[in-house]
Known about the structure:
By secondary structure, the chain is mostly helical.
Amino acid sequence: MSTEEPGESAPEHSPGTREIIEALLFATDEPLTVRQVIDIFGDPGEVEKPAAVTPDDVLGSIDDLNRDYERTGRAVRIVKVAGGYQFATKPGFAPWLGRMLREKSKRKLSLSALETLAVIAYKQPVTKPEIETIRGVNADYVLHTLLQRSLVAIVGRAATPGRPLLYGTTKEFLKHFGVNDLSELPKPREIDELMAEAEFEVEKKMLQELEAKRQTETGDETGGGEADGNAGGDIP
């Protein structure tokens, strides 16, 4: 017969390596590297620790967890971002998450901020005068905003007269755009091709609209000409 008192719950079992890694990645507000996870396991403390873990243990646990999430149809998975690992929702849930994020539109980056980020991402390390030369406008305010949001950081000083500050992107930038490193950003050539395709589509649509308008106007004029011709007996 059970000696457990009414209302008492059975004691929880000690968590294993995989469960601890899952809890760490669920609770973190920034990606955790394999090294950080290993250090957490080896940190001295009062809690009972499982055996020391290796990089293979960490990566194997992440793979096992992802297989479980896939098998059970969960909405989340563990992804590699900015050199570390954290939870993310699957792409199929993007429409619903988009609705939620629209409620936070006040945090949305402005066009000028995106343009400045693009310059820094592709030209870094880059100075403020260089950014202003490329964009053609003062960059004081937008740089201040990007620094506040930790999307860019001061990475040094240029070896030019006046020693201006150099700016570069941060891990927060990688997290914000969901890429693991800068090599995953579109190449300038790819951007040019996409822009060319987009411009071609716009031009094609404009030509189609102009052609439709011309045909309509020509049809009207033809109709009027035929009426005049019939009335005046002009030879076609």
